[in-house]
Design brief:
Layout (H helix, E strand, L loop, with lengths): L2 E6 L4 H13 L3 E3 L11 E9 L2 E2 L2 H6 L6 E8 L6 H11 L5 H4 L4 E5 L1 E3 L5 H15 L8 H9 L3 E3 L6 H8 L1
Parallel strand pairs: 1-2, 1-3, 3-5, 5-6
Antiparallel strand pairs: 3-4, 7-8
Helix pairs in contact: 5-6
The structure holds flavin mononucleotide (FMN).
Flavin mononucleotide (FMN) binds next to helix 1, strand 3, strand 5, strand 7 and helix 5.
Length: about 170
């Protein structure tokens, strides 16, 4: 099977996961912006950072994939990936980014990334501050896993990258 690993990463945590996965599996890896053509690949393993629920670069990349290719999706976000509601939200938003015929057969995995507020772009800092002020005023029992992660990590540097979780993904695709 001709397989490619692609990643959509703004601040590098997703890239770290994808490159580690390439090292573990011996598969080629690239950033989604660097690949113009995906014909000739019959399996794509896509690692994407979560931005406001969407997976960076996934929607446009999938458009380049041949319809009978296999797609494996790995999301990387800040919120706790053991939280069922968080997973349900991510999977729901995947429906808006990936055509149904791919999603029906796509294994989907969820990993935790990190954040370093010193490195955020100005618009992202503004966005996170507005969001923080909004969720901070919510009663604790109304806060989602995303809200909790935002509050816990606001204005700090947090790194939840755990390569051990890649082993399970490698086993599933081998
Ligand atoms: C503007 C912005 C929006 C984000 N939205 C989400 C989100 O919806 N869900 C989530 O779990 N994490 C969210 N995050 C956290 C990122 O997914 C996390 O930092 C991830 O590790 C980023 O990957 P990257 O370093 O490869 O860009 C957001 C971060 C920023 C800066």
């Amino acid at each position: 099977m001709n397989t490619l690993i692609l990643y959509g990463s703004q601040y590098g945590t997703t890239k770290r996961y994808a490159e580690k996965f390439a090292e573990m599996t011996g598969l080629p890896v690239a950033g989604y912006e660097d690949i113009k053509n995906l014909t000739g690949y019959d399996r794509l393993i896509y690692f994407g950072g979560l931005y406001a629920g969407g997976v960076k670069g996934l929607k446009n990349t999938v458009k380049k994939l041949s319809p009978d290719a296999k797609l494996v999706i790995v999301t990387v976000g800040l919120a706790d990936v053991r939280d069922e509601k968080n997973i349900a939200n991510i999977r729901n938003s995947l429906k808006k980014q990936v055509p149904e015929h791919f999603l029906k057969t796509s294994p989907v995995f969820h990993l935790r990334g990190g954040i370093d507020y010193r490195k955020l772009t100005f618009p992202h800092k503004v966005m996170m501050t507005l969001l923080y002020n909004k969720v901070k005023s919510l009663p604790e029992d109304k806060r989602t896993a995303e809200d909790r992660a935002l509050i816990e990590t606001f204005q700090t540097k947090a790194d939840f990258v755990d390569y051990a979780l890649l082993k399970q993904i490698a086993e599933t695709i081998s």
